[in-house]
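Q: What does the assembled structure look like for these inputs?
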Amino acid sequence: MEAFVRLNGLVAPLDRANVDTDAIIPKQFLKSIKRSGFGPNLFDEWRYLDVGQPGQESTHRPRNPDFVLNQPRFQGAQILLARKNFGCGSSREHAPWALLDFGFRAVVAESFADIFFNNCFKNGILPITLPAAEIDALFAAVSATPGYRLLIDLERQLIERPDGISLPFAIDAYRKERLLNGWDDIGLTLRHADIIREFEERRRREQPWLFCG
Amino acid sequence: MSQNSPQTLYDKLWQSHVVLEQDDGSALIYIDRHLIHEVTSPQAFEGLKLAKRQPWRISSVVATADHNTPTNHWERGIEDPVSRLQVETLDANINEFGALAYYPFKDARQGIVHVVGPENGATLPGMTVVCGDSHTSTHGAFACMAHGIGTSEVEHVLATQCLVQKKSKTMLVRVEGQLRRGVSAKDIALAVIGSIGTAGGTGYAIEFAGSAIRALSIEGRMTLCNMAIEAGARMGFVAVDQTTIDYLKGRPFAPKGDDWERAVASWRQLTSDEGARFDQVVELRAEAIDPLVTWGTSPEMVVSVKGRVPDPASFADPVKREGAERALAYMGLAPNQSVESIAIDKVFIGSCTNSRIEDLRAAACVLKGRHIAANVKLALAVPGSGLVKRQAEAEGLDKVFVAAGFEWREPGCSMCLAMNADRLEPGERCASTSNRNFEGRQGAGGRTHLVSPQMAAAAAIAGRFADVREIV
Ligand code: SF4
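A:
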């Protein structure tokens, strides 16, 4: 997993509440067997005027010019600005994969759905929750300022606005350490392999029927 | 906690699986059974290979292909190339890494993962059971700690046999009394969700108890635990009793001989102790539950078949009012419309909620000697597994379904999530025994009403929702 330390990125605003994971990546794309390559289908139903199919080349599909990610000024955005309850709905991890594959490394929103929030950390995306007033101010600033960027400093837990104002954010210490180091869950758990093996052997002795086969 | 203070079943299950407590309050939890299907596993196996890791204990894995597999014309194979690739990728991964058991497409024991595990005795009391599918809570019917996981966690369990978990709060849902005729476990599930809401169980592990729950068969308990996730809970479970033990005896992966006796003795401990404290208690009377029908786009939007679609204006909470307005618009329903006046286009009897033998029997009992209404374009009966299908055929249930105008299909998830060809067209209305009525769940623009198998059968005959108690 790629470490997340500091990010100075272009901000794209997605001004609606309750964006669900099916909107982030519609279910027909769940049939893929890869964890990469979902970027072209991120927000597929909003981004394109036709109905996307898995395996289809997206370059020549008709685009919805009104959709924010299709606007030239947001090309190359790495920070997504969103509203309340971002990532609700099905637990599909394809949602963070699609965001990551598109190029987003951080999502800043008023609130997140629980499973999506967890899935972000597992994939090196930093989800940041800010108070509604700060989110409102950011939406206003992004729309007023072409090329609006934010600097996210995970070590100091601060978002620095171009006008010099810093917005502090909260993050669980364990998650922060993992993101800063790019540690994946499996590597961390396998540090305890001996303890797991000991537990397993005792269980096998005491309840052998759980280990048939 | 002292050894002597009374424990809930959840406390016992949790404690017996803690490998290691971590500083932040989470724990490494050992996983006994890992169920795998074709949709959420390919990326996990890919990740494992990319990291050059080996599975920790592959004999914990039971796998089957269910979400994408067609439910008819098996001789043609899987025609959709993308679905076929997923299923073939599962074949290849199991071929490479192994499994305790694999029931591939067309296998006699293939079926929906949550039907296949229990009927083969691969789900045993006291286990932790995980699967990359939110309805893994189904296995709680056997006093298991069973819940869905994401694909990263599938890879984590493959590589380490553990999950990092935080302990949930506990909720006791006690249902006392006797269900009335025509009312089933599905109606209890919908009644619970209607009463606590789809977020009511968030952060909780739910234990279902009380005389009405003890009276349920294992199949009924699976239906109930299956829907715990729709109440927002990660898991739901029922304590072990004689019903649990009788169900398991003689199943292929159930213990045999001396092991059986020892296992049964330990399983009998899997109940909440007298006086154990729960963080929340919810009580329902079984007699008060009617056959239910959902009217909206969330399982909590539910009402008696004898009731009416609510008027959004009657909700004091503006969020609920707006939700109800949106749901009625999507569902094409009018405020105060009687449920029995809602005509349907399709019927789906199946899914991991209601595709077991008891469900098919209940539906067939209503359909026997009757026929679906002229306005019903398609009625599907999709058994949960190959074993269920053959059992039903041995009992002649397939003939009852077919004579009534149903299509009798091969096992799989089918129209529960419409990943294969079984789906609703925009605007079509379905009486469905599945578990989710979200917008587009059964096909873009499709309108889903969740009901029990007997109520789905009643709706098929009437061509609209009807009270099963007035039909049989
Ligand atoms: S039947 Fe439906 S809910 Fe159950 S496992 Fe299949 S898709 Fe999921």
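Chain A has a mean pLDDT of 93.
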